[in-house]
Amino acid sequence: MARSIMTPAFKIERDEDRCIQCGVCVRQCANDVHHQDEDGWMWVDDEKCVACQRCAVLCPTRALSIKEYPIDFRSNQHWTSPTIREIYAQAESGGVLLTGMGNPRSYKNFFDHLLLNASQVTNPSIDPLREPMELTTYLGNKSQNGSEGEKPQLELDIPIMFSAMSFGSVSINVQKSLAAAARELGTFWNTGEGGLHSDLLGYGKGAIVQIASGRFGVHPDYLENSAAIEIKIGQGAKPGIGGHLPGEKVSQEVSRARMIPAWSDAISPAPHHDIYSIEDLAQLIETLKVATRYRKPIAVKVAAVHNISAIASGVVRAGADILVIDGFRGGTGAAPMRIRDNVGIPIEMALAQVDSRLRDEGIRSQASLVVTGGIRNSADVLKSIALGADAVYIATAALLALGCHMCQMCFTGKCNWGIATTRADLTKRLNPIIGSRHAINLLTAWSHEIKEMMGGMGINAVESLRGNRLMLRGIGLTREELDLLGVKPAGE
Amino acid sequence: MTIFSAVDYEDHELLQILDETPQEEIEVRDLNGQRYIACGWKNSKKLILRGTAGNNLGAFAEGPQIVVYGNGQEGVANTMSDGQIVLHGRVGDIAGYGMRGGSLFVKGNAGYRLGIHMKAYQDKNPVIVVGSSAGAFAGEYMAGGTIIVLGLDSNRDLIGPYCGTGMYGGAIYLRGNFPEHNLAANLSQEILSIHELSDIMPYLEAFAQYFEYPLENILETPFTRLKVLVDRPFAHLYTGFVS
User: Fold this and answer.
1) Residues A5, A11, A17, A21: is their CA dihedral positive or negative?
2) Alpha-carbon distance A53 to B27, whole Å?
3) Counting Cβ atoms within 10 Å, is residue A249 exposed (0-12), middle (13-18) or buried (19+)?
4) Least confident of A111-115, A144-148, A151-155, A183-187
5) Res A147: pLDDT
6) 3-state DSSP helix/strand/coil percent for chain B, to nearest 5?
7) Predicted pLDDT at A146
8) Contact B178, B161 (CB under 8 A)
């Protein structure tokens, strides 16, 4: 067979002086990059390397390093190296380019153009080490409607939850880590649309269970054994299209949770075919409320798209208790690259517009607003809340805490870190006790940082920061962008 | 058995009464499109409904036995896990969407989007039997289970356009002639003799019994079975590469 016109993406460099031929790299690589021959010599197959860094991290003598492959196409600002490689891949396969994780392209990042305020002299700052700071957040419909009693609420000790990642797209040990961490942290995790694995039944009451167009693993006990139900309309990484869990990832275990035959494809159609309008959505929301006797908040998750504020208004009027908006940086286990990289809008813009629209229409109290899609740190969380969010979901950041090295090859099912895989031998590389500890550490650190930043602003309850855009200033933004975000420029 | 009239009740008043009725058998008369009946029920209660059943009858339910003497509206048996609905009339759109178990028998026509993305797993094997015809998109994205369309007492096309589009599991049985151009491309067709109907004979017998229709009349016309040609039609759609 002719050699591929595609050169390797990465080059593995082995420091022969350091290498002790122990073979750890061979055993750790599910992509079969490393080989050891019978004489003990080490060989590499660069073409298979995805730069997940597993071998480099576990090499006991630090003999391995992975670099971008040093083939430089002739400089060209238009036909960049990735662009050329994508064409080679499609020319040789005829396939839709598939990718994983969130949009990596260099679009303007509005979080990085927003600055937080702090008190000086006139309004004393608060030291969170000395004074109590309130991060407790309630999610749900807070409007009081005559005779109707209080609506069901989710109580969060921190305004951060773990976003939907289905068992199948991620390993069971990821879900175990996050479910245990959520319980310890006083927050919630989300099943994604893959059903609830029997090992996690005890964590159901701490879970937001998802219903997507595939309706996988959905039955009365699944709805009942939950904290809330989330209807997934769309996802930031792939707005407007459905999902496709390839049969290779549908192991016996996944098949049990999803209630489909093992090794069959799990297709989620693009729309819910019982939702073609806001009225239809209202009907599904009501159906779920009836089915769970009005005891659980119903969330609706949509991707941030061009006319998001009108959509959000419709979703809230349809009876959603929690509106979740996923921005165009949102991660995924598998999405067509063109869609991930070119569809949707930034979450910062969508959030600001939706919060304003719901306030203008007098319906903001009918639903809580949760945003997700590219939240990287506690400052992004705080900026989101100041722009109008009640809480955020994180997923990519949580996976990084569990050991993800962002190679973006989640769809292969060969994740060497035991995260985006359903293979038992790879799954056990992620110890759920250590995983949950890391996730707890991450969010504990973030909540300390949030308290410090809030204290600096002289605010002692996250409630007081919500939608408080005076606590934000824009830097390096156009007048139009500032107007859309509803913030003043730095200096004004 | 409790019997009452629904004539004075809004959706939620009726649901509350049904919830609070302890009897295993309940008959509701004068039903006039009230929605969400038996949604999420996990029991084996027997419901007899007289009149028109509103949207999402039996949605997300697991186990109830429902007989409707009248028509059903949209979303009958939506995402139903188990149980049975026998409808002495016709149903609207999206009947049996994402249905995972149990059975739905309809005497007359079914609307658009019948049995989209039905799926089977182990002993869960959903079945829909439609007495007359089904509208467009029947069996779209079907992943498992059985849809049977009989074409009895009908002068409409047996199935509408886009039947079985994106289907990747399960089987559709059509009795008699149907417009072939309405079928999706990925389907195989087998014309079955009466001896090859053993898989669906219990459902045909049940249909004949529920609606008092002579079984021999049903069996005198041959059936065509539609299945997918390629088990994993989407397997080669995508290409992964080290980006």
Assistant:
1) negative
2) 66
3) buried
4) A144-148
5) 63
6) 15, 35, 55
7) 59
8) no
Give the pLDDT band of residue A7 (cuts 50, 70, 90).
confident
Which residues 56-115 in chain A show a CB within 8 A of chain B?
82, 85-86, 89-90, 93-99
Residue B63: other Cβ atoms inside 10 A? 19
Kindly indicate whether the ipTM for this predicted assembly is greater than 0.85, answering yes or no: yes
pLDDT recorded at residue B49: 98
Q: Is B20 in CB contact (< 8 Å) with chain A?
A: no
A231: closest CA of chain B, how far (Å): 13
Integer-rounded Cα radius of gyration of chain B: 18
> Which amino acid is residue B142, in one-letter code?
M
- pLDDT score of A5: 87
Q: Which domains does chain A have, with CATH numbers?
A: 10-95 (3.30.70.20), 110-489 (3.20.20.70)
- The residue ranges of chain B whose pLDDT is under 50 are none
Distance of CA B61 to the CA centre of its chain: 14
- CA–CA separation, A326 vs A347, rounded Å? 7
End-to-end CA distance of chain A: 66
**Burial category of A47 from C-beta neighbours within 10 Å (exposed 0-12, middle 13-18, buried 19 and up):** middle
Map out the domains of chain B as residue ranges: 1-85, 90-103+112-243
Set of chain B residues whose Cβ sits within 8 Å of the Cβ of A265: 168, 232, 234-235
Q: For residue B79, which residues of chain A lie inside 8 Å, CB to CB?
A: 215, 218
Alpha carbon dihedral A329, A333, A338, A341, in 10-degree steps, equals 10
Distance, in angstroms, between B99 CA and closest chain A CA?
9
What integer best gives the mean pLDDT of chain A? 95
Q: Which tokens is A426 given?
A: 């790879």
DSSP notation for B170-184: EEEEEES---GGGB-
Minimal Cα distance from B54: which residue of A?
A283
Q: Is the CB of residue B83 less than 8 Å from the CB of residue B65? A: yes
pLDDT of residue A262: 86
Percent of chain A's residues with pLDDT above 70:
99
Residue type, A35: H
Sign of the dihedral defined by the CA atoms of residues A78, A84, A90, A96, in that order: negative
Does residue A145 register a pLDDT over 70? no
- Distance from chain centroid for Cα A202: 23
Dist. CA A489–CA A221, nearest whole Å: 51
CA distance A154 to A184: 15
Q: Is the pLDDT of residue A162 over 70?
A: yes
Which of A49, A95, A260 shows the shortest C-beta gap to B143? A260
How many beta carbons lie within 10 A of that of residue A329, not counting itself?
27
What are the Cα distances from residue A46, in Å, to A8, A35, A390, A448, B139? 6, 11, 46, 43, 45
Q: Which two tokens stand for residue A221?
A: 């006990």
Considering only CB atoms, A215 lies closest to which of B79, B166, B234, namely B79
Interchain proximity A95–B236, CB inside 8 Å: yes
Mean pLDDT of A127-137: 93
